[in-house]
Design goal:
single chain; about 300 residues; alpha+beta; 2 domains; 4-stranded antiparallel β-sheet; 12 helices
């Protein structure tokens, strides 16, 4: 069995000067990782917000009672609320009072608008039980039997355009992460080619000493992987500082939606895995680049 041995003096630190930065490339990789982590964090935050939004609204309905006569409207609203309260699938049914209606329309009609004087539709906020299988058509038929002009609308319908926007932002963030990782691979390939050109004479000597292409490629791929890992960690640390600052500002704003965008523990683990993934990608890219170049030399 033949054993492949390294030539005498064959050291991984001899070609790429172990411990020295390879020009501006580490900083380029750190910047790429910084942008990658921010994009990934944005995508994960939007994904968490989308799931939270869907979960919250999936079991909520709004019943609108449209009737110009306030007495009839009030009677129909109470009857529908009583009907919903007896439904085993309904967790709660709350009638919106005049003060709440005034607050909802004040951005458009001004603070002087009064639900007692204007024929606002009566609103009933309905929460379904989590385990309930809601028969929306049957529920709508029961409601319209009391108030023919009433509408039963799932709350998620109102926010479907916003949900589509969130999904678009998630896809955009994923595309940016993919592009940044492609840029990392391209930067490593350019750096490997530059290192090959710089050390062409040394490589020829190593070939004469009996070094194989695989052994020479290992020198480059190991160093590129280390550079990518260290640079990735630097970029990750910078991005984490920015994200912690953003989360601090988010926590100070009393918004349920913004609170849902805060990163969970599993999201931080995914972000922490990006630098090692970049190192593996750099190792693979450097090896392929060097092996192809060395085959052309022989």
């Amino acid at each position: 069995m033949t054993e492949t041995r390294k030539p005498s003096g064959f050291s991984e630190g001899n070609i790429l000067h172990e411990g020295k930065a390879m020009g501006p490339m580490p900083w380029v990789l750190a910047i790429l990782m910084f942008v990658t982590v921010l994009a990934a964090a944005a995508g994960l935050a939007m994904g968490a917000a989308s799931m939270s939004l869907s979960s919250d609204l999936a079991h909520r309905l709004t019943v609108q009672v449209i009737e110009a006569n306030p007495d009839i409207r009030h009677a129909q609203t109470q009857a529908i609320a009583n009907l919903l309260a007896r439904n085993p699938s309904v967790a709660s049914a709350k009638i919106a009072d005049d003060a709440e209606l005034n607050r909802l329309v004040s951005p458009w009609l001004g603070n002087d608008a009064d639900a007692a004087d204007l024929p606002y539709p009566a609103l009933i906020d309905v929460s379904m039980r989590d385990s309930a299988q809601v028969d929306l058509s049957a529920l709508t038929a029961a409601v319209t039997a009391i108030a023919p002009s009433a509408h039963v609308v799932p709350d998620i319908t109102w926010l479907s355009p916003f949900a589509r926007l969130l999904n678009l932002m998630i896809a955009l963030a994923a595309a940016i992460v993919a592009l940044m990782m492609t840029a990392v691979a391209a930067a490593v390939m350019l750096s490997a080619r530059a290192a090959l050109d710089t050390h062409r004479v040394t490589i020829d000597i190593l070939h004469l000493m009996g070094a194989s292409d695989s052994q020479i490629a290992k020198l480059f791929q190991r160093r590129m992987a280390i550079e990518a890992l260290v640079s990735g960690v630097v970029g990750l640390v910078g991005a984490v500082i920015v994200l912690l600052g953003v989360e601090g500002l988010t926590a100070s704003v009393s918004s349920e939606f913004l609170s849902s965008t805060m990163l969970q523990w599993w999201a931080w683990i995914i972000l922490a895995l990006l630098p090692p993934f970049a190192a593996v990608l750099a190792n693979f890219s450097a090896r392929n680049t060097v092996m192809r170049a060395l085959r052309k030399l022989t």
